[in-house]
Amino acid sequence: MLRGLSNEVLPLNPAVEPLSWMLGSWISEMPGEGSYPTIKPFKYVEEVQITHVGQPMLNISFNSFNSETKKPMHRECGFIRIKPGTNKVAFVSAQNTGIVEIEEGEVRDQELTLASQSVARMSFAKEPHVQQITRTFRLTEEGNLEQTVFMATSEQPLLQHLHITYTRTS
Questions:
Q1: Which of 41, 84, 86, 125 could form a disulfide linkage to 35, CB 3.0–4.6 angstroms apart?
Q2: For a pLDDT cut of 70, what percent of the chain falls above it?
Q3: Using CA of residue 79, residue 19, residue 137, residue 133, what is the dihedral sign?
């Protein structure tokens, strides 16, 4: 139950009800897998927080760690908005790698599919530059949240980059 500054319970905005299955704290019990032709395959663990403050959007943050050393890796935070009265969704995020992106797509039942509409980066971002991202979130029959990310860079076509499954902790 979410509470505001004056300790009142904040109801979920009806606009984001189709995304309510995503709400909660999630953690990967088994390491996720990352690969891409230009990097060595890796395993990672990740914590995800998906919350709301009563506005017509969800707040989301990802914190990933090396599965062996537990050292911090990727960080990402942003917002998921739904166009009221539709299944059209936008995900706006900023990453610790210097990338800011807007992804748009659709929610159908308990699956959210997104594709980048805009990818911007800081002037000294590491090459090769990310040019396109697609991502799918889905709630499995077991109640786990699964995320698969595909990526294209200035040197590689759109290929699967990440896959991870999370268990809800709250």
A1: 41
A2: 96
A3: negative
Secondary structure in 3-state letters for 48-94: EEEECCCCCEEEEEEEEEECCCCCEEEEEEEEEEECCCCCEEEEEEE
Work out the angle at residue 24's Cα, subtended by the Cα atoms of residues 42 and 33, and round it to the nearest 5 degrees: 10
Tokens of 49: 């927080």
88, 68 contact by CB (below 8 A): no
* 150-159: average pLDDT: 96
CA of 57: how far to CAs of 11, 13, 19, 36, 91, in Å?
12, 8, 9, 32, 10
Residue indicated by tokens 């530059």? 129
Neighbours of 72 (CB within 10 A): 11
Separation CA 165–CA 170 (nearest Å): 16
The Cα–Cα gap between 29 and 104 comes to: 28
| CA dist list (Å): 44 to 15, 62, 72, 116 | 33, 12, 10, 23
